[in-house]
Amino acid sequence: MKVDTGSLRMEPIGKSEFLLFRFLEFRFFWRSPNGRAIPMLYGNPAWLEPLIVIPYMLASLAHVRNIGGAKYFIRQGKEVAGILILKVRRDVLDVLTLGVSPVKRRLGVGIFALAQAEGLAKRMGLRWLELEVLKGNTPAQRLYWKFGFITYAERSMTLVLRKRV
Description:
- By secondary structure, the protein is of the alpha+beta class.
- Helix content is about 40%, strand content about 30%.
C-alpha cells in the first residue's frame, strides 16, 4: 500500500529536536542498512545494543554539531516517516541524510523527500542535487536512480550521485 503523498509534509526542525529524536528513536536508524550491518556480523545479543547505542549517541552529538545544514522531518500526521538533511554548497544542494522509517519504506516517502529537495534546489536557483550512498545499499541506489540520479564519482565505499535540477 502506497502512502498518500498528499498526507505527507516536510517540516523544518532544530538541532535540539533532531538530537532528541535520534536518542529516542534509535530504532529508526538501527533498522537502516547501516544499522543492520552490525547485528548481521555479530548476531543480535541483548548486550550488544548498549555497546552500539553509546557510540551512536556520541556520534549523534558530533553529527549535529558539525553537520550544519537544514534539517527536516517528513511527517505523516504526527508520525515521523522520514528525515532529510540538506546543505547548500556552491551550485549544489547536498542531501546529507535521507532516512525513511522502516515501516514506511517502499511506500513513496523517499520519492516525496527527494521531490521536496529538488523543488527547494529549483527555488534557490541551484544546478545540482547531490548525495552519497553506500555501494552495498542497493535499495537506496534503486530509489535514487529511479528519481533520475546518475553516478558522478566513485569512492572506496560510496557512490556520489548527482541529478541536474
